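Chain A, query sequence.
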Amino acid sequence: MVGLDKSKTDGYSLVGNFKGQRTEWYVEGNLYLDCGIGGSRKNQHKTYTLFTFTEDDKIDTLQVVEGHYDWAPQFWPTIEKYLQEHTRCKIEDAIEYKGDVTMSN
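Chain A, predicted structure.
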């Protein structure tokens, strides 16, 4: 995850390249979102977890949100704070270009 698009209020407000779960994709310091689905087929329960990896390959859970309609905006303050503290660029500098996200200097 590399930024926010606050013109949207659902999961599309979270800017980044989304992939299936494979541990070799995880890189220390990057921000990740996981969606866990539990419950029955007719009554699914979603839990979203925002996390990163530490230098010693441990998961650092930043925030957990139970799935409902407005789950994504609940992450915004945590994402903004993390990106401001861990990137050289400001969140406003994230530019979406043909589906790929780049950070401008």
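The first helix runs from residue 76 to 86. Residues 3-103 form one domain.
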